[in-house]
Amino acid sequence: MSHIHQLHTTLAGPRPKKPPEKVDELKAVEKLTGRLWWISLGIWVCVGLLALYTLYIGRNLFMPILVAGFAYLTLRPVVRAMSRIGIPSGVSAAGIMLVIATIVGTIGYVLSGPAQDMLEQVPGSMPEVKEKLGFIFDHLETVNQATEDISETADAENITAEEKPIPVEVKQPAWTTTSPLIAGTGNAVSFVSIAAALLFFLMAAGDSLVLTVVTALPSFASKRRFIEVLESVQDALSSYLAWVTCINACLGVCVGTAMWLLGMPSPLLWGVAAMLLNFVPLVGALVGIAMVFFVALVSFEHASFAFVVAGTYATLTTLEGQFITPMLLGKSMKLSSVLVFLSIVIWGWMWGMLGVFLAVPILISVVMVMDKLEATSPVNAMLNGSVGKTAHPD
């Protein structure tokens, strides 16, 4: 091999070496590229933080708009199907809104009686709950008393009798214009009104709004990309919400049947509550477990039976969340558990319980948009690592 190399060197001459200037230029370009990457990442982080701050400040405006937008994308295939058979979009929108109002009103009317009876029993049931859970409250009271004794001893050593502050008690008026109940009711009415009206107008407009946006885009590539993004988000949300609704309905039937077999009062109420609460990831299951535990503790003589009821509810929701839902949704809808948890934490912190409800649809929309836009940021690489592999098998 050495003789062949020498012969090749003799015939072709030595290999030309890159001049030092070229090497320095390449190193400078690589260094500049690295700096630009970090600058781009910093800009995107700042843009994301500013967007989150804007959404937090204007949550009373953005929440109903976002709910109406998701509902429109979910129901848009229904409106388009009715348009293909000759039904105008305005009539379709009115019919869909009437069906939604009828379903919500019927559920509210059927469940209002049992729910009101249970709420009326809550204040009078607290002494009984405390008595049955006395073994827990006794330990907590012992810990609290020890903590207070330590705190009082430390204060007595550091503060003399002359330096002790005079206790001041501030009493709030019994009725104020800023009552949380009144404020919450007003916000709920405004939210429902804005979301319902916007959803109706979006469905009544049909595809005219989409065509207007497409017409305003400058190039054919941008128009095609917009349609692809819209269809992708629409299909993902429709598929996700349809599957989740069916799964939650089956869970409600199972929970209601289990509560009936265990002798819980108003099993229909618990079935519907389990179905609705399960739309809120993680938090809904915890709220449902706490509710059935409290009612079982009041309804049955032995406190141990309350743990059996709560354990049954927890078992059903765990089976649904860990096995049934991932199996039915498949890999195309399997989001990273870390991303789902972070999305729930972020949107729950900004928008409360409604933010927790919207966390997964928002995450799905972001994933689909980023995937179709073919962004090269690290965020997109992280998202595509958990979602979208079935769409891009290569």
UniProtKB/TrEMBL annotation:
This is AI-2E family transporter. InterPro entries: AI-2E-like. Pfam families: AI-2E_transport. One of its GO terms (cellular component) is membrane. Residues 1-22 are annotated as: Disordered. Belongs to the autoinducer-2 exporter (AI-2E) (TC 2.A.86) family. GO terms for biological process: transmembrane transport. Coiled coil: none annotated. It is found in: Membrane. It comes from the Bacteria. Keywords: Membrane, Transmembrane, Transmembrane helix. It is a multi-pass membrane protein. The chain crosses the membrane at residues 36-55, 61-79, 91-111, 194-220, 240-262, 268-298, 305-324, 344-369.
